[in-house]
Design a protein that fits this description.
Helix content: under 10%
Largest sheet: 5 strands, mixed
Strand order of the largest sheet: 8-11-6-5-14
Strand content: over 45%
Radius of gyration: 18 Å
Number of helices: 0
Shape: globular
Structural class: mainly beta
Length: 196
């Protein structure tokens, strides 16, 4: 059984134009290959709105964009061989000054999360983690001082399954709920999430 996956991009919501960038037939439970990241003048490409692995039904995948000044959390991409251990940086840009955050990471259950550590962009916050499984949660809390620098917030280390196929990809996504991320004035911060 094959599933069609369509990657599209909204060009201008006022003009209601949609460019179809690619149509791909994907085996059931397979992974779609995204086209080259589309550019949009005045915006930063912020990833795709859906996970492209484990495709089980027809789907439309849309490019997401953010203003260049929006706070953005990015999970790095990496390439590894079957059985390898790989460390991914989770970075923030345009940091508005975080006083607290609850960040949830979902990852392909074939991966094994073996380590997690706070990066320098979270200084001076206290950081704790849930048990290493999917979903995985990081709790970041500042009592008097906000973390206001851009850079690496966390490093997540995974082991790739020994039986992974060449070219196989594994999705790792970051998310948060309204009210889970606040600045030093205790105002909600919406982070644009770009997942590896």
């Amino acid at each position: 059984k094959t599933i069609a996956a369509v990657a599209s991009r909204v060009m201008d919501i006022n003009q209601f134009l949609i460019d179809v960038l690619k149509v791909e037939e994907v085996p059931h439970n397979g992974t779609a290959t995204p086209p080259t990241s589309p550019q949009r003048q005045g915006y930063v490409f912020a990833g795709w709105d859906r996970i492209l692995s484990n495709v089980t039904a027809p789907m439309v995948v849309t490019a997401r964009y953010a203003l260049p000044t929006a706070p953005m959390l990015t999970v790095a991409d990496a390439t590894a061989k079957p059985g390898d251990t790989v460390t991914l940086d989770v970075s923030i840009t345009n940091n508005p000054g975080l006083l607290g955050a609850i960040l949830t990471y979902n990852f392909d259950p074939a991966l094994t999360l073996t380590a997690a550590e706070a990066g320098p962009a979270l200084d001076p916050l206290d950081v704790s983690f849930s048990p290493y499984g999917t979903p995985f949660t990081a709790f970041c809390d500042g009592i008097t001082e906000a973390a206001d620098t851009d850079g690496v917030m966390m490093r997540l280390t995974f082991t790739v399954p020994k039986d992974a196929a060449v070219g196989q990809s594994f999705a790792i996504t970051a998310s948060h709920h309204l009210g889970d991320v606040v600045d030093s004035a205790l105002k909600d911060v919406e982070l644009i999430m770009v997942s590896g």
